[in-house]
Design a protein that fits this description.
Pathway: Amino-acid biosynthesis; L-tryptophan biosynthesis; L-tryptophan from chorismate: step 2/5. This protein is an alpha/beta fold. The protein has 15 helices and 7 strands.
Length: about 350
């Protein structure tokens, strides 16, 4: 009888168009993370997954294996992550990054996990580097110390997942999107108690929801109707609330919160220096469409956190909860607290 956890079985299963079990997916990713998988096998795996489409079970297995090999970030998981998958190709400013600062300024602990650019011209890692918010040390204890001091910090994905280096050259040579393009938001090394996740790919959003539900996580998962991997001000937003395995779907129109419609062009970003200037201006109180969408996403981030701290808010309309949180984050920005949080974060990083 053929071993279920073997390359012949795994590849034959995928080529037949069938899904791997959680265990098989975890086994395959384990081989990649440890450097035990030949490039030929990894290439076949990634191509077959791309052709078939990843299942929830496969994503769960891959996630579990990646987290097993992530560098440990000490100090527990009592934190929020606000993140997008990237891949929307709309080249916007760094909305989730700005929202993270505002949320932290409102009193919610945020440990952002991100990387270089995918959908924007400038990724989280790019703009934070320009702003002096990425510590020189790759020691997880430094990331945690900054978090403990100021209530916000940044875990650079490339530093915390060294196993990804085993497949970096192959991914580049393949030249196609692979499962690694979507794993990032699922493999935060601290396993945050709450997540606010934007998903660009319409075909993937319910799969991300399924991963969170399978693992009993707390999250708000969303997608703008134009493909924006944020809570959108350019149109309606599909939002899934995930709590202890239960899922509720909503549709949100930001105009119901008094936020005017914007165009994608209003949110367009540029190079790291440009986006850093936009971030600085927004934290300083500059008004307009960027401020509007940052506050909206900050409010949804706080709503995700409230879902965790209140042990479920499913008895109350989501719109009502977001409206309450919008008042809080608006005050955090208008009062100068967000600017102070940005300054404190920079000082904490640069003192190390």
């Amino acid at each position: 009888m053929q071993d279920l956890n073997s390359w012949p079985t795994v590849l034959e299963t995928l080529i037949a168009g069938d899904d791997l079990s959680i265990g098989q997916a975890a086994w395959a990713m384990e081989q990649i993370m440890t450097g035990d998988a030949p490039d030929s096998h990894i290439g076949a795996l990634l191509a077959a997954l791309r052709a078939k489409g990843e299942s929830v079970e496969e994503l769960v297995g891959f996630r579990d294996a990646v987290l097993t090999h992530a560098l440990e970030l000490p100090g527990g998981s009592e934190m929020l992550d606000i993140v997008g998958t990237g891949g929307d190709r709309l080249k916007t400013v760094n909305i989730s990054t700005m929202a993270s600062i505002v949320v932290a300024a409102s009193g919610v602990p945020v440990l952002k996990h991100g990387n270089r650019a995918v959908s924007s011209l400038t990724g989280t890692g790019d703009v934070l580097q320009v702003l002096g918010l990425v510590p020189e040390s790759s020691d997880p204890a430094v990331v945690r110390a900054i978090f403990d001091e100021v209530g916000i910090s940044f875990a650079h994905a490339a530093r915390f997942h060294p196993g990804f280096g085993n497949v970096a050259a192959l991914r580049k040579s393949l030249g196609i999107p692979t499962v690694f393009n979507v794993l990032g938001p699922l493999v935060h090394p601290s396993r945050p108690e709450a997540s606010a996740l934007g998903v660009a790919d319409k075909a993937m959003i319910e799969k991300f929801v399924g991963v969170y539900a399978t693992r009993g996580a707390t999250a708000l998962v969303f997608r703008g109707e134009d493909g924006l991997d944020e809570v959108s001000t350019t149109g309606f937003t599909q939002i899934f609330e995930v709590f202890r395995g239960d899922v509720i779907e909503y549709s949100l129109d930001a105009r119901e919160l008094g936020i005017p419609r914007a165009s994608v062009e209003d949110l367009r970003g540029g190079d790291p220096e440009h986006n850093a200037k936009v971030l600085e201006a927004t934290m300083a109180g500059e008004e307009g469409p960027v401020r509007d969408i940052v506050l909206l996403n900050a409010a949804v981030g706080r709503a995700a956190w409230q879902l965790h701290t209140s042990q479920g808010q499913t008895g109350r309309p989501l719109l009502e909860r977001i409206r309450e949180q919008l008042e809080i984050v608006t005050e955090a920005l208008a009062s100068g607290a967000a600017q102070k949080k940005l300054d404190a974060w920079r000082s904490a990083v640069q003192s190390r």
